[in-house]
Amino acid sequence: MAKKKYTDVLKKNAMLIVLVLVYVFFTVSTNGQMFQAMNFNALITQNAYVFVLATGMLMCMLTGGNIDLSCGAFVCFLGSIGGILMSVKGLNVGVSIILMLLIGIVYGCVLGYLIAYVNIPPWIATLAGFLAFRGWGTALLSANSTTGSISLAAQKAFLGIFSGKLFSTPINQLNIVCMAAGVIACVIVVVTSFMSRANKVKKGYEAESMGALLIKMVLAVAVIMLFSYKLAMAGGIPTVLIWVIVIVLIYNFITSKTTLGRYFYTIGGNAEATRLSGVDTKLIMFLAYLNMAVLTVITTYIVTARFQAANSTAGTNYEMDAIAACVVGGVSAYGGAGSVFGMVVGATLIGVINLGMSLMGVDANWQKIVKGGVLLAAVVFDILAAKKSSTK
Amino acid sequence: MGKVILEMKNITKTFPGVKALDNVNLKVEEGEIHALVGENGAGKSTLMNVLSGIYPYGTYEGDIVYNGEVCKFQKIKDSEEKGIVIIHQELALVPQMSIGENMFLGNERGKKNAINWNETYGEADKYLKMVGLSESSRVLIKDIGTGKQQLVEIAKALAKNAKLLILDEPTSSLNETDSRALLDLMLEFKKQGMTMIIITHKLNEVVYVADKITVVRDGSTVETMDCHESKIDEDRIIRGMVGREITNRFPKRENVNIGDINMEVDHWTVHHPLYTERKVVDDVSLNVKKGEVVGIYGLMGAGRTELAMSIFGKSYGSGITGTLKINGKEVDLKTPREAIEAKIAYVTEDRKGNGLVLSNPIRVNTSLANMKGVSNKGVIDVDKEYAVAAEYKEKLNTKAPTVEQNVGNLSGGNQQKVLLAKWMFTDPEILILDEPTRGIDVGAKYEIYCIINDLVRSGKSVIMISSELPEVLGMSDRIYIMNEGRFVGELNAYEATQESIMANIIQSGRGE
Questions:
Q1: Integer angstrom CA distances of residue B105 from A187, B125, B157
Q2: What is the domain range of residue B334?
Q3: B380 to chain A nearest CA, in Å?
Q4: B330 touches chain A (CB under 8 A)
């Protein structure tokens, strides 16, 4: 019995363990470069877009393995609109941000309507956007600039909201705000975990053992403090990290605690049963794609601010990165199963592999081959695990 | 008498937990039409699946002797090579392909890997003529009617060089004229020496074509009647089909007061969602009182599920007309949500298909139709949800370690209880139970009946749809009989017998 529990824990956290092993591997093979403060910072700033897009993709995939192929191209299109509004027309940054959001909402409504109410298969509806928006964005850029790229370097307010660091300090000097934030995060995590367990015990529900919880808490605190320390040494909290954390927390809440989130899962599990239980399944499908568009808008802000420019290659393959993060993170390709936490682990794993291989100087083509292999391995593992548990 | 072409000896087939066939014996002589009759679930189709190799040799006990040799079919192809061809109840044709392509699907004409289209269509036309179809074999399946599609299926079987043809409910989706044409075709084939087995519910058809009739009941062959030795009429067949003693299969219902009319449906007509001219439910009127169990009896395809789902927030069908009154007030329920709010619950016949989310735990399934009951402003109170699921698990005696168990891992009876729990938690006044005991064992059936009794005792109304006659008789206060989309009779429990119900259906069939 104890042994079975042990393997259960391993199985449940398989991806997390893989993540740690992969991280250790890269740290060793890059002679500790991977463990440097700057690379902690890079891991976050380079991959922020994956976390945000994969959150939206998760919600789509939950409804039955549905995906959005158009989000990468839409980042390019919307980025060029943003560049034109701010740098060419000289519009106020706040107004531009709102206009971009509105355009995203309009696109989300059209897409959601076509998929949910006209019953166009999602991959076809979004394939149209995939083709059209890349072209449209590039056309807008070449019409408004001679270089095919619009610089946003002068838009300090925009860059301040979506990139850079909070309370920035010089590198290799401990950033007090960042450390304090780490401590506060630890306290919140520990207190809520223990309170939730105490509540379960009080009401006589199944709860994990005190020992397991303690080990978990020690590990969580260690990871958070390590991260805080490394980021504090790299100049402070990256602004995008705040965006990512807020989005991840919100969607973790929606998927695990709300009736709305529950319906995404049950539709993926059995759409007809959900419909006959009085749920407006079409509305949920509509919301999945509207939500995807809104998160794509936020991704556009983050990406254009990081590159300080709108250009025609922005967002290339982003949709694939988001899908890969979900699948590696255990989100079912058939819908109905997956979690925000899993997706975060999947996205981080892919980010670590990207960064590690870049640091090792692996050829870009080989990087793609490795990523493809990891994706396939994750899916095969998932299906085999599901088979095993169903024949038990 | 002719030579015995097929003999099935002591066939026993067990599924996990159920004995579907128990020592079945069947003898078919060359050149005869042999009818298999029996209630739904008696085991007729299972027997034919054993014969055709769908259940391969080794998964059943007993012997199949065909043309004097013992057959060990591993797959359908094996039995087809011997000339045993089965035509299933559901047509297995690809609508977007031509008649010719369908006819030789998996049996293509021409060289290996290269189809000879002239040969395909030439031969197809030949077989079409044999079944009396004048269509070109290049016409697409979707462009011809169901009656002709059924004939294409038969032509397809002939193309496989069939010597023993098995027809499973061949006329279930055909109208009177098409059915008669098909039966006449069978008689024509008989003259040419073909042997046929027909499975059907329509006893008039049995009397019309059969040389011998074998009755299957509860997984055993009860008797074989020879239509040439003595005159067999429908009453005689019915006696064979339903002649079973019923003792204590249904719990007694006591202390129930039947009150006022709770729900009333008037002149309800529903059309098919795709073929919008086709009436699936035709001018049906019914009512159910508080504390009453109303049974709707009808065979599969009679339109019972369609009726129920169309009442339940128009979740099936198009062009629905008629009035629906709840507590005397006319209502127009456009979505399942509105139906739930009007205190109607529809407990589906297809618990895996559209009833339960199998990949989710009991807890999630129990609350799904009433998330408001376990949440506050859209935020789920998981503790409360857990408590609710545990309460119903206790109340309905659902067997599972915890409510966190995935529903997909439960047995059919326990799944049915979770499904009932889900709908009881919506606190309905009117429950429509569609085949509530399909595919579950006798013990679980009894428990479900007890739950139904508890429900009506607390003043709820229950409409129970069933194709099991004993169940309808044992549980209902009043019985509506449905056939081909219409109500063809209404009987009080005390005046209803198995014979009188069957007679009602047969008469309605003749009336056309």
A1: 68, 15, 11
A2: 247-343+429-512
A3: 5
A4: no
